[in-house]
Write a structure and sequence with these properties.
This is UBZ4-type domain-containing protein. Residues 554-565 have a biased composition (Acidic residues). Residues 34-125, 542-574, 651-671 are annotated as: Disordered. The protein is an alpha/beta fold. It has five domains: 7-98, no CATH class; 148-284, P-loop containing nucleotide triphosphate hydrolases (Rossmann fold, 3-Layer(aba) Sandwich); 290-376, no CATH class; 389-480, Zinc Finger, Delta Prime, domain 3; 512-665, no CATH class.
């Protein structure tokens, strides 16, 4: 049995002390209150460390007593007993511990790593030291919060003075301070006067489920009933919850049992329940400006300088004259470059600053340090979500730039999408839509379709040239939205009007029964006529409806083209007569024409038809008169003069029979 005055060796620091002082010394030693003496390389047996930190000890009193006896036994005695009891055991391994005590000398090669932090002495400080740099640099008060002045200095400021926090949704890109703002709101409301302090609970939708949320809300209700303390529940990335999971929050938020603060990077209108959005306030957080990013970096540098000053004080107490200050060598040019590179993301900026602190060499100039950082840190990827708002906002900007005939802006937005890795086929499909909506040229649609095929064959990155060529062509082309606007009007009429039946005369009649019923009767087959004819294609209830607006004034020129007729050596005309053009009556020789025309009652809408054959086509003057009255505003057709001159040269024709007339005016087959 060992005596209380016997010297034993501490299993932690190998300090020899009386046995009666071992237990208090162990408590102090394991809590970080003492430092190792002697050499910086201390060898402690692995079995002793396992006995101290192992959680698989025998829970019985006998096992605990045996373990305590092992601790109280000197190291040499324990070794001798082990060797005497079991000679088959191999030599015990040793664990090498690097000590950073204040009494030890700094290693010789420490000057190569000037920003090497010391090991913290407490468990909390060890946890804080393990946090990422951006997490450790979070502001602790709202006064230190940078950016989002419209949100922080707006209604939230008055609510915080009263100790009130409404349920809210913080919507913004990554790195804009959503999580930091939620924590500071809870901290500010808890420290203000008024109601009891808030209990802050933070979870993430990426690793939490409905069961966790229900447990938190039950506990929040109990706390509210017993102490009046409200629970502020912060949920990061709430869009990861399904709509069914989001319904769990509705009763608690509606009754005021919890204050829900949710953060999301995606549009709440599409990813969150509308019932939940109506019960919460939506605050939009924007990207930080370059000046705001610079301010975030300067605040972080001040924190780093404070930490380095504390380390220098410890080194001076240990008689170490080394200078580890690196933050003072970060100049404004480097800060500005990091802020521009971060693209409004404070987390990205702080990560780049951490790399700059690790790679900055005080012996080099600021320009050399900046060049080294640029080689080590490539420019961050553009913030772009192929399925989120940024995707649709950018393609909308591209389409509107094309519509506004700004090829330079259109190329910029195209480059944004291509460089961000967007699908080139998606862009090409949108260009096809723009060609039909906004451009008054069939060549535009052909160009866009060819671009889509080129993107399929070539692929990125070369197909970017095909997209750029199409974008420039569409942006510089003449614009017209007549067909697009007419299509919108037609859809609106169909969606809101009665489903009218198709008129009989334009129905298809493939069988005899359908013809007997009246399908296709009195249909006028336009290709059989050498002039325009009028017939109503709308249902009777919609007669006179117009969707298409008149063409622009510069496009009102009539297009007339003469063609040779088959077998009769006569010319027929392909006419597109716009509204409002008036012919000259003096060119019509009505007296001579009457001698060349014969009249007879026929089968058709006119009671008296004047019908002539011009090769493969026919002339019906009654139908031409009807077209002029119904479709041309009462004005004469511009081709009537030439048509009448041509009819004067024809010999007298026999009087047509009813069957011949019906042959002209009745459709021989619906195409």
């Amino acid at each position: 049995m060992s005596s209380p005055s016997q010297l034993v060796e501490c299993p932690s620091c190998q300090l020899k002390l009386p046995l009666s002082h071992l237990n208090p010394h162990l408590d102090k030693c394991l809590s970080g209150g003492t430092s190792l003496n002697g050499s910086s390389q201390q060898h402690v047996k692995a079995e002793q460390w396992d006995g101290i930190f192992s959680n698989r000890l025998d829970p019985s009193p006998r096992g605990l007593k045996r373990h305590s006896d092992d601790l109280l036994q000197p190291a040499n005695a324990a070794t001798s007993n082990t060797d005497s009891t079991d000679k088959r055991l191999k030599p015990e391994p040793t664990v090498t511990i690097n000590s950073n005590s204040a009494t030890n000398d700094t290693p010789a090669n420490s000057h190569n790593y000037p920003h090497q932090p010391t090991v913290p002495s407490t468990s909390r400080s060890r946890i804080d030291a393990a946090k990422p740099f951006a997490e450790r640099m979070r502001p602790q008060t709202l006064d230190d919060y940078v950016g989002q002045s419209d949100v922080v200095n707006g209604p939230l400021k008055m609510l915080l003075r009263q100790g009130k926090i409404p349920s809210m949704i913080l919507w913004g890109p990554p790195g804009t301070g959503k999580t930091t703002l939620a924590r500071l709101l809870a901290k500010s409301a808890s420290s203000s006067r008024g109601p009891p302090p808030h209990r802050f609970v933070e979870i993430s939708a990426t690793n939490s489920g409905t069961a966790d949320v229900k447990k938190i809300m039950d506990e929040a209700l109990h706390r509210l009933q017993l102490t009046g303390q409200r629970t502020l529940l912060f949920i990061d990335e709430i869009q990861r919850f399904s709509r069914a999971q989001q319904d769990v929050f509705l009763p608690a938020v509606e009754k005021g049992q919890i204050v829900l603060v949710a953060a999301t990077t995606e549009n709440p209108s599409f990813r969150l329940q509308s019932a939940l959005i109506s019960r919460m306030r939506v605050f939009v957080l924007t990207k930080l400006s370059v000046d705001e990013c610079c301010q975030v970096l300067r605040n972080a540098i001040k924190c780093v300088e404070h930490e380095q000053q504390q380390q220098q004080q410890q080194q001076q107490a240990a008689h170490d004259d080394g200078d580890n200050s690196i933050a003072s060598h970060i100049d404004q040019d480097l800060i500005r470059w990091i802020a521009n590179m971060a693209d409004g993301d404070a987390r990205t900026a702080l990560g780049a600053l951490e790399l700059a602190l690790s790679t900055t060499d005080p012996s080099l100039t600021s320009a050399d340090n900046l060049a080294r950082l640029k080689t080590a840190l490539k420019r961050t990827a553009l913030q772009y979500d192929r399925t989120g708002d940024m995707h649709y906002d950018t393609i909308s900007a591209l389409h509107k730039s094309i519509r506004g005939s700004d090829p330079d802006a259109a190329l910029y937005w195209l480059a944004r999408m291509v460089c961000s890795g967007d699908d080139p086929l998606f862009i090409a499909r949108r260009l096809i839509v723009a060609a039909s909506e906004d451009v008054d040229s069939l060549a535009a649609l052909q160009m866009a379709t060819a671009t889509y095929q080129a993107c399929q064959v070539v692929g990125l990155p070369e197909c970017g040239e095909n997209l750029a060529q199409c974008v420039v062509f569409l942006a510089e082309a003449k614009k017209s939205t007549r067909s697009y606007r007419a299509w919108k009007k037609a859809k609106a009429l169909v969606e809101g009007a009665y489903n009218h039946p198709v008129p009989l005369h334009i129905r298809n009649a493939p069988t005899k029964l359908m013809k007997d019923i009246g399908y296709g009767k009195e249909y006028r087959y336009e290709p059989r006529f050498a002039h325009p004819v009028h017939q109503e294609f709308f249902p009777p209830q919609l007669r006179g409806t117009r969707f298409l607006s008149p063409p622009p004034p510069e496009q009102e020129d009539a297009n007339e083209e003469e063609q040779d007729a088959d077998g009769a050596q006569a010319a027929t005309m392909k006419v597109q007569q716009p509204v409002g053009q008036v012919g000259d009556r003096n060119d019509y020789h009505h007296t001579s024409m009457q001698s060349a025309m014969t009249s007879k009652a026929g089968v058709g809408p006119g009671s008296c038809q004047r019908i002539f054959d011009l090769g493969a086509r026919s002339v019906d003057l009654d139908l031409l008169d009807e077209w002029e009255q119904e479709r041309n505003g009462g004005h004469e057709w511009s081709g009537r003069s030439k048509l009448m001159q041509l009819l004067e040269t024809l010999p007298a024709q026999p009087v047509p029979t009813a069957s011949d007339s019906s042959r002209v005016v009745v459709d021989e087959g619906i195409e």
